[in-house]
Write a structure and sequence with these properties.
161 residues; 83% helix; 0% strand; 7 helices; mainly alpha
Length: 161
């Protein structure tokens, strides 16, 4: 979204259209995550019910699920992941779409505006942040490999029993 804001500053894109397209893209990704949670509901529930915190979380989501989706969309970090549990909890799909859209719009607007305001300094900022992107990608890959190894070790332990 910041890059879309930069393109708008540069005159290559309409900033409001960028915000709307970003919001729509966020909605599509969220619907996919919701569908995955919904489809995997039975498998996930079997595993989750073994977790002592699950019952409390399920009850809380049943009572406040709609507002949880909206508020979570506004929180950094959490906003990306709320769709999956919303699908597992079978949240009302129409409300999910409404609250996801309402909660995603301010983020898309703010990030596009940041890119727009950075306009003339974009190249300078890009030259500083671009190398950091490789560090972030490397850290994500290390984390992913560690998760795969941990999962593989669990499978090995289970097969030995």
């Amino acid at each position: 979204m910041p890059y879309a804001g930069y393109l708008a500053w540069f005159g290559k894109m309409n900033w409001f259209v960028a915000v709307l397209v970003g919001t729509f893209g966020n909605l599509i990704g969220s619907i996919i995550a919701y569908a995955v949670g919904y489809a995997a509901r039975n498998t996930l529930l079997v595993k989750l019910k073994k977790n002592r915190h699950y019952t409390a979380a399920e009850s809380w989501f049943d009572r406040k699920g709609d507002i949880v989706v909206l508020v979570s969309r506004l929180l950094p970090g959490v906003r990306t992941f709320i769709s999956l549990p919303a699908g597992v909890a079978k949240s009302d799909f129409r409300k999910f779409i409404l609250f996801t859209t309402i909660g995603s719009f301010p983020w898309c607007l703010a990030l596009t505006l940041i890119g727009y305001l950075l306009g003339r300094n974009w190249e300078r900022i890009h030259s500083i942040l671009h190398p950091l992107a490789f560090v972030v990608i490397a850290l994500i890959l290390i984390w992913l490999v560690a998760k795969i190894v941990k999962y593989r070790n669990k499978l090995t332990d289970l097969s030995e029993k």
